[in-house]
Every structure is written in C-alpha cells, then in structure tokens.
Amino acid sequence: xxxxxxxxxxxxxxxxxxxILGQEDFYAFLSSFLxxxxxxxxxxxxxxxxxxxxxxxxxxAIRFGELPDSSLKRCTESRSV
Length: 81
What we know:
The protein has 81 residues and is an alpha/beta fold. It contains one helix and three strands; from the N terminus they run E-H-E-E. It has one helix spanning 24-36; strands at 11-17, 40-46, 60-61. The longest helix has 13 residues, at 24-36. The chain is globular and about 40 Å long.
C-alpha cells in the first residue's frame, strides 16, 4: 500500500512460483514489471514445494492444482487448451 508521500511502489516483493513458470514468458513479464516499477526489488523462489507463506514471509504465491488442506482461496481460474 502506498502512503500519501509515496508516488510509486517501492520495496521488496517476495514471490513464490512453481518451476513450470520459471520459463522465458514469465521472466519477460517479470522484467517488464521491474522496468515499470524500478523501486521494487524481487526475491523469486522458483520451487514446486508448498512453502509456509507466513514463515517464509512470501508476499505473492502462484500455485496450480488443488490445495486440499489449505485455507488459501482461489483468485482466478485458468484453463489451457
């Protein structure tokens, strides 16, 4: 969240993503994002492990598939053809 004195977002963004996203398209998107918001630094964790988001202090986690023992909520559904 930006304060009234901030004009642009800044700071560290910790992202966890599955290995399947660790490919050229995702890196191109991330590169474009960082050029748009140069005040943001990214720690990217590319892993198929389900990290403890609180313990690892993860801001954004991207996951695919069912999470049967989780209180996490699905924010979008994507289907590939």
